[in-house]
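Team,

Forwarding the record for the chain on the shared tracking sheet. I've put the sequence and predicted structure together so nobody has to dig through attachments.
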Amino acid sequence: MRFPLLALTATLSIAFPAHAGKLFLSGGGYSDTNTDLFVNGLRKATGIDAATTPNLASTTNCSTDWSTTRCPRILVVTSASASSAVGIDAFQNDLLNTNGSVRKRGYYNLFQTHGFSPKHLNLHVDNFVSAAYSSANVALVNQADVVFFTGGDQAKIARSLFRDDGSDTPVASALRSRWANGAGSVVVAGDSAGNHVVNATMHGVGISYGYLHFNANLPSPTPIASFATFGDTREGTSALRYFDNGGTMKGLGFLPTTLLSDTHFDARSGRLGRLAAAMQHLGIRQGLGVDEDTGVLVDTTANTARVFGSGSLIVVDANAATRVTASSYKLTNLRVSLLTSGDRYHYGTRTVTSSKAAIGTRYYSGFYDSSDVFGPFETSKSLTRVVDQSGSFNVGSAPRPRYSSGPQYPSSAPTLKVRFTRDASTRGYFGGGKYTVDKVKVDFE
């Protein structure tokens, strides 16, 4: 049976505001107890009551009276959910195991444990006609210190925020006005699908092999009203292109247009090929691939991205890359970096800052050639090994996917190759059990 990957995206096609605020981009799959992500990252980004330490065992850390609370006021937007009822449930109720223990916190309890005062924006595909124009909802946006878009289906977020022609509804307009007021006004945050929606044009669905096989050829943006078929429908919705290639759609445009973000970057499946191909299609030279249980604070005034959480940020820099004409997407001299908690990337100067120790004597001998380079964590392993091994390069293979049902790749579809090379521009660092990798040369062969 085929289970296509549903990526998360949204886009906006009006004039975008000057970048003057903070974004907090989460890659999805977070741990409820990840205090580095939620407290050190998101909560401190607000600058409100940041010195206090919340009690992770308590779901009553903060008053919900937004006129008096000392906690950051977070507005949780569940528009990525299937419906209003699903969104309300996700906000109000914990997900339980069969024995009654908590498997996943509902958003109210999650943010209470981390020292936020949460409220819910009930805005979804089944009620957006009224909810997106509600003065009460606009008032919530205007009062919030953080507006947090949850994970799910990114196309549903776009459908909920924008009119059919892509222009702002009053709720979207209110958020845009808050953002335009500058860094101290509001932090816009997003997890998974909510991460994608802050792009000017979001990409989504599909897999790395598909994006490369179809030669970085994505369709025109899906109209807002056609959100249910977000993807590449040029050969219909039961074709290989629809399942494995990508789609594009309008987003909010808060992330600088020189950047493109992606999510679940290496834990769910390797999305390096997906991001690189989407960047090529959209004419964007730098990408931020945020992995699961990881957050990245993007300060659009300082032009920096700082990493929080247990996973990694993979930065894709195509500034000096050259595309090679071929039947599938190929290029040379892509520069790829891997950052972990505490590291910073300055996207204005394309430089990495790490406090970890520079790698001297290399730990591994030989090389590491992945047999499935777009499998979970294989890109990360290829990057970290190449800076800490005697061999100067690794070559990862991406065999053509084969499915038990549905459309298939032609038997002539090749095994794709990705080469990771350590050269004079490459640096590696290690400390506290984590790596920082700076400027590995990557070629799609």
